[in-house]
Amino acid sequence: MHIILVYIGIFFGLFLEGEMVLISAVIAAHHGYLIFWVVAILGVAGTYVADCLYFFLGRKRGYVWINKNPKIKAKAEIVKKKLEKYPAIIFLTYRFLYGLRTIIPLVIGASNTKTKIFFFYSALSTIIWASVYCTVGYLFGAVIKSELGHIEHIEKYIIGILVIIGMVFIVIKFIEKKRKSYPV
After folding, report:
1. Which of 31, 126, 153, 159 is deepest in the core (most CB within 10 A)?
2. Model confidence at 149: pLDDT above 70
3. How far is CA 12 from CA 92, 93, 147, in A?
4. What is the DSSP code (8-state) at residue 111?
5. Residue 99 phi, psi dihedral angles, 5° rounding
6. Does 48 have pLDDT greater than 90?
7. Prediction pTM value
8. Is the pLDDT of residue 151 over 90?
């Protein structure tokens, strides 16, 4: 039963920090803790669902939310101009543009882009993205196993500590963002 919770955590973790979650899950699969093909499918599905969620949020309230935050608004204006000039390139590469992955589907959703066009390109982009990061994770897992195989008896503890550190880091960043948004 607990393994199902791990897979659910991977699926929803992809909404927040896709690369690290997917690479970490693939490394765990390489070491035999998870099933690789399940992780790969979750990598595609979780990322695709997150993109569609942001797209539909953009359809519903895109520029209302974007205009509330000056930093996001500035990025959104750049994205909008690039989207008008290079739509296919933006559709295929936005998964790889760190710092813009949430904003781009919001802007696309707020634009006049047809839903089926977004679905197609998002699926294609997500499959490419997941393939790249699954490969990176698998290769990194192989390096870890070959170079650090002598610590195999404590790797579960190391992974657990790294997961806890990552979660604490995410919580701290979230709290910092909230403090900046709502100064006391």
Report:
1. 126
2. no
3. 22, 22, 31
4. T
5. 95, -10
6. yes
7. 0.75
8. no
Helix (H) or strand (E) segment spanning residue 69: none
Q: 170: closest CA among 1, 2, 21, 3?
A: 21
SS3 content of the chain, % helix, strand, coil (to 5): 90, 0, 10
89 alpha-carbon distance from chain centroid: 19
pLDDT digits (tens, 9 = 90+) for 81-94: 888 888 888 888 88
Q: Tally Cβ neighbours within 10 Å of residue 125.
A: 20
> Residue 152: what pLDDT?
65
Q: How many CA atoms lie within 13 A of 117 on its CB side?
A: 11
Could you identify the residue written with the tokens 């000056």?
Answer: 70
In angstroms, rounded to a whole number, what is the distance separating the alpha carbons of residues 76 and 91?
15
The residue to which tokens 């990061």 are assigned? 133
